[in-house]
Structure formats: C-alpha cells, structure tokens
Amino acid sequence: MIHLLQTTSLFKTEDKTSTTSQKKKPSEGMVSSIRKSMKQSSLIAEAKQKTHVAKKKYNKQLKDKNPKLYDKPPHLR
C-alpha cells in the first residue's frame, strides 16, 4: 500500500516538472519581428531627434535674419 502511494506521488511530481520545463519558446519569426520593430523604433526616434535639431537651427537662422519680426509672439506676427 505504501509503495503505491509513493509511485503515484512520483508521477505527480514528474507531471509538474515536465509542464514547467516545456515552456513555449518564441518562434524565430516572432523574435526577428520583435528585433525588426525595435530597430525601426530606434531609427524613428533618431530621425525625430535630427529633425528637431534641424528645426531649431532653422528657426534660429530666421530669428537672426529678422529679429524685429520674431520679437513679437507668434499670433501677432
């Protein structure tokens, strides 16, 4: 009787470990798409930063060319 209980408890623990050890791994397509999207988002962020800097330079050049106009607030120009 004790022997049967021990074997059933062994089977139960084996079932638990087999389900936890067989975790789903992401497929290669999924991993590559995640990497691709991360790369795209970093490129987009870099482009936004560059355009922001370019806009600041352009606005500064305009302000330097015509300081009287840019002394006024935008709604009064």
Shape: rod-shaped
Distance between the termini: 95 Å
The total strand number stands at: 0
Task: Quickly count the helices.
Answer: 3
- Helix/strand structural class: mainly alpha
Q: What fraction of residues sit in β-strands?
A: under 5%
Question: Short description, anyone?
Answer:
The protein has three helices and no strands. With 77 residues, the protein is mainly α.
What does this structure look like?
The N and C termini lie far apart (95 Å). The chain has 77 residues and is mostly helical. The longest helix is centred in the middle third of the chain and has 38 residues, at 28-65. It has a domain at 33-77. The protein has helices at residues 2-21, 28-65, 67-71. The chain is built from 3 helices and no strands. Residues 1-11 have a biased composition (Polar residues).
